[in-house]
Fold:
Amino acid sequence: MSKGKELKFYDFEVFKALVEIEIERINRYKKSSQFSMVFLYFPTITNLLKEKKPKDIDIVFKLRENLRNVDVISPVDEDFVFLFLPETDKKQVGMLIERLKKSTDINFVEGVVSYPEDGKTARELFDKMVQIMNDKLIPIIEI
Structure:
C-alpha cells in the first residue's frame, strides 16, 4: 500500500446510494459477491482534540494506512465514520479492525454488516447496522 494513495470520501447519501448500486450490480450480473459496511466511533476523540493538536490524532491517516484504494470512507462527524469495503467478508473486516487497533492508541467502537449474510437489500443492511449501533452505542438512530 502506497502512503500517498487517495481514499474516496463521500457524504452519507452517496454512501447509501453506493450500497444500493453495488447490490443491483451483483444481482444484475448474477455475480457471487460480497461486501461489508463498517462503522467506527471514536468516543474519546473530542477530548483528545482538546488536549493535542489535530495533526497528532490523524484518524484518517491511520485508516489510509490500512485501507485499499477501492475502499470508501464516509465521515459523519469528527468522531464517526462509515466504511464500504467491496469484496470483503466479516473475517477480513476482523483482520482490518485488529490492524487498526494495533496502529493507534485511540479506542473505538466498531460495528460490521456484510452482504449477503446480514441482508440482501440496502434497507435490510442499514436496519441491521442501526440495530448494532443501538446495541453498542446510546440508542439515538432511526432510519
Summary: The first helix runs from residue 12 to 28.
